[in-house]
């Protein structure tokens, strides 16, 4: 049986913080942010102009966005469970696994920093979900397609979180990490659907600063990879627990 303290404790908090930030950065990536308004409009069966001017249209887009986020969350939770199960199966080789994962994540980080360009990471492989706009079920299907098909664009950031989930070697803890990532990626979709007119200038400013966002993503990945490679990620988790004893009550 799994107990609550196996699912969430202070040692998982740093990884969850990274997963949340990674989800937000995935939303801000060049292959996601630009398509958000037309994607939301299509799923809600409205136009971008209607989303800007009509509250009813935004409500339809928001409802579609909820089911879209449920769809992508379904896939991410399954990926988290699979990664953790694989980590458990390879538990005897976990030291080597963490080292390799750390090196790969640092390479991903170097790609975003512009130090090392990996061509296939600059392309997108999208799945066509067909004509599924304008319905809750269609939005859910599109969420599934988005999670499966928006690779390798999301690959480096998502791969980092899957690597962290695999090192947990516990299915529920791995799923908790991917649920946090899905929350970080999905919540901005809901906010844009609900407050589209107010957020349009913010999104435009983010597009203009996409280079800085990519570099910040690269720095995050490179740092996480280095911490995993040197074993300091786990050490930091225990440092948190010793420095803030109240965190031990979590779980």
- Class derived from helix and strand content: mainly alpha
- What is the terminal separation in angstroms? 15 Å
Per DSSP, the total helix count is 12
Question: Which overall shape is indicated by the principal axes computed on the Cα atoms?
Answer: globular
Order of helices and strands: HHHHHHHHHHHH
Ranges where pLDDT stays below 50 over 5 or more residues in a row are 1-7, 125-132
Query: What is Rg?
Result: 19 Å
Q: How many runs of DSSP E, i.e. beta strands?
A: 0
The whole-number mean of residue pLDDT values reads 78
Please state roughly what percent of the residues sit in beta strands, choosing from under 5%, 5-15%, 15-25%, 25-35%, 35-45% or over 45%.
under 5%
Task: Please write out the topology.
Layout: H1 4-7, H2 13-27, H3 36-44, H4 48-53, H5 55-89, H6 94-113, H7 136-149, H8 155-168, H9 171-194, H10 196-208, H11 210-230, H12 232-243
Kindly describe this structure.
Helix content is 75%, strand content 0%. It is an all-alpha fold. It has one domain. Helix 6 (94-113) packs antiparallel against helix 8 and helix 9 (171-194) crosses helix 10 (196-208). It is globular. Mean pLDDT is 78; it is low at 1-7 and 125-132.
Quick structural gist:
It is a multi-pass membrane protein. This protein has 251 residues and is mainly α. The protein has one domain.
Salient structural properties:
251 residues; mainly alpha; 12 helices; disordered N terminus; membrane; cytochrome c-type biogenesis; Cytochrome c biogenesis protein CcdA; transmembrane helix
């Amino acid at each position: 049986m799994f107990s609550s303290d196996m699912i969430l404790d202070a040692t998982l908090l740093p990884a969850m913080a990274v997963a949340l930030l990674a989800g937000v950065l995935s939303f801000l990536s060049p292959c996601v942010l630009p398509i958000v308004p037309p994607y939301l409009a299509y799923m809600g069966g409205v136009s971008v102009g209607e989303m800007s001017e009509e509250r009813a249209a935004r409500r339809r887009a928001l409802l579609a966005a909820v089911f879209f986020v449920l769809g992508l969350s379904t896939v991410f939770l399954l990926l988290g469970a699979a990664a953790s199960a694989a980590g458990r199966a390879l538990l005897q080789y976990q030291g080597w696994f963490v080292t390799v994962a750390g090196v790969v994540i640092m390479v991903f980080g170097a790609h975003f920093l512009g130090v090392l360009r990996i061509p296939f990471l600059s392309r997108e492989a999208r799945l066509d979900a067909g004509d599924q706009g304008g319905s809750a079920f269609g939005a859910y299907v599109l969420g599934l397609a988005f999670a499966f098909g928006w690779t390798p664009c999301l690959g480096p950031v998502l791969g980092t979180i899957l690597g962290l989930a695999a090192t947990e070697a516990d299915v529920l803890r791995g799923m908790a990490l991917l649920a946090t990532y899905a929350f970080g990626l999905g919540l901005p979709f809901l906010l844009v659907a609900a407050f589209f007119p107010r957020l349009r200038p913010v999104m435009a400013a983010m597009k203009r600063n996409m280079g800085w966002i990519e570099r910040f993503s690269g720095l995050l990945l490179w740092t996480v990879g280095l911490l995993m490679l040197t074993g300091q990620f786990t050490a930091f988790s225990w440092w948190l627990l010793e420095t803030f004893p109240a965190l031990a009550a979590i779980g």
